[in-house]
């Protein structure tokens, strides 16, 4: 009888237990964050079951958004919500208000759902700047001010990856328990990877540094082996693979979309926060992604994120272009 394995198997580290442990490290904490996160987890469980039931795609986006908005408001811990699905920000009525702002994409990669490819929910959490009346300025903050970020991937398994600013941890939903169990503790992205991930269909519209970088991935001049291309077309799935295997995910600007495609608040910032917490980097082509200060809630930005050394290479190409 392998008692150690048995003890391990029976010592269930659920996400609630994990966050409560984290909370105990902050004696000043009132448990607001734990309550907020439990409502986000509830939303993820709902979407996971709906995805597995194969709900119509159109309805699933709207359904996921409704569930997250209602769960976040009913937590009593939020004051502003920004969703990819809603044109305007939602200001929670004063009687139900708390001190957190949540920016989220309830169902990212939605164009992939009909063929059953992995999709996901992405979220970022800010706390309001001061105790006053919440304003849009409380969400139009640099990404580095986030207190937590994460995503939940709905694929062959349902995996929730989160950071509260001290490392990155991954939890897998055990359907028999209905609980997210810690399966990927302290995720650290490899310093350099063998994979690059980009929609090469846009190549003809790329700028010089991006085109040069992808060329180097395919035809390295330093004798190293060429990188493999992997592109799912769901940011959550492409970033999840990048986080675990290393390499680089990029959605650059191009002539067609000069600001790129991905949204700063609820796609670029949360993924950049996780990447940095796992030892990687996130760059916009001009600056560290988390230093950006968005002016609009649905603003877009180019993004290059992944293994530290791989992102360093693309930063060098942009710097060289600038110094021309
Ligand atoms: P949606 O929020 O409309 O799903 O768009 C985001 C997204 O699907 C990302 O998940 C993915 O990385 C990207 O768009 C794929 O874009 P493209 O099809 O242009 O490569």
Automatic annotation (TrEMBL):
Predominant location category: cytoplasm
Segments forming domain Fructose-1-6-bisphosphatase class 1 C-terminal: 189-318
Necessary cofactors: Mg(2+)
Domain of life of the native organism: Eukaryota
Cell compartments where the protein resides: Cytoplasm
InterPro entries recorded: FBPase_C_dom (IPR044015), FBPase_class-1 (IPR000146), FBPase_N (IPR033391), FBPtase (IPR028343), Fructose_bisphosphatase_AS (IPR020548)
Cellular component annotations (GO), alphabetically ordered: cytosol
Residues of the Fructose-1-6-bisphosphatase class I N-terminal domain: 13-185
Keywords for the protein's UniProt record, in alphabetical order: Carbohydrate metabolism, Cytoplasm, Hydrolase, Magnesium, Metal-binding
Catalytic activity: beta-D-fructose 1,6-bisphosphate + H2O = beta-D-fructose 6-phosphate + phosphate
Catalytic activity, EC: 3.1.3.11
Gene Ontology BP terms: fructose 1,6-bisphosphate metabolic process; fructose 6-phosphate metabolic process; fructose metabolic process; gluconeogenesis; photosynthesis; sucrose biosynthetic process
Entry GO MF terms: fructose 1,6-bisphosphate 1-phosphatase activity; metal ion binding
Protein family (similarity comment): Belongs to the FBPase class 1 family.
Protein name: Fructose-1,6-bisphosphatase, cytosolic
């Amino acid at each position: 009888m392998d008692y150690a394995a048995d003890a391990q198997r029976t010592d269930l580290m659920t996400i609630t237990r994990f966050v409560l442990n984290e909370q105990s490290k902050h004696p000043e904490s009132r448990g607001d964050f734990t309550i907020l996160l439990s409502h986000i987890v509830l939303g993820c469980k709902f979407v996971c079951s709906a995805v597995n039931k194969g709900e119509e795609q159109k309805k699933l986006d709207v359904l996921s958004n409704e569930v997250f908005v209602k769960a976040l408001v009913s937590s009593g811990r939020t004051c502003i919500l920004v969703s990819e699905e809603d044109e305007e920000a939602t200001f929670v009525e004063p009687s139900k208000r708390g001190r957190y702002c949540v920016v989220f994409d309830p169902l990212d990669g939605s164009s992939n759902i009909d063929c059953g490819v992995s999709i996901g929910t992405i979220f970022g959490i800010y706390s309001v700047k001061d105790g006053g009346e919440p304003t849009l300025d409380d969400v139009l903050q640099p990404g580095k001010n986030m207190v937590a970020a994460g995503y939940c991937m709905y694929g062959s398994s349902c995996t929730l990856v989160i950071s509260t600013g001290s490392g990155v941890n991954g939890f897998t939903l055990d359907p028999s328990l209905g609980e997210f169990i810690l399966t990927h503790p302290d995720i650290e992205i490899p310093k350099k990877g063998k994979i690059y991930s980009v929609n090469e269909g846009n190549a003809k519209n790329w700028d010089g540094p991006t085109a040069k970088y992808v060329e180097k991935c395919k035809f390295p001049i330093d004798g190293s082996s060429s990188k493999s291309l992997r592109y799912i077309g769901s940011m959550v799935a492409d970033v999840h693979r990048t986080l675990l295997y290393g390499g680089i995910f990029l959605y650059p600007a191009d002539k067609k979309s000069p600001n790129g495609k991905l949204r700063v608040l609820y796609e670029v910032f949360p993924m950049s926060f996780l990447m940095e917490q796992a030892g990687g980097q996130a760059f916009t082509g001009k600056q560290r992604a988390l230093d950006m200060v968005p002016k609009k809630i649905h603003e877009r930005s180019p993004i290059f994120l992944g293994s530290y050394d791989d992102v360093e290479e693309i930063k060098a190409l942009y710097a060289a272009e600038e110094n021309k």
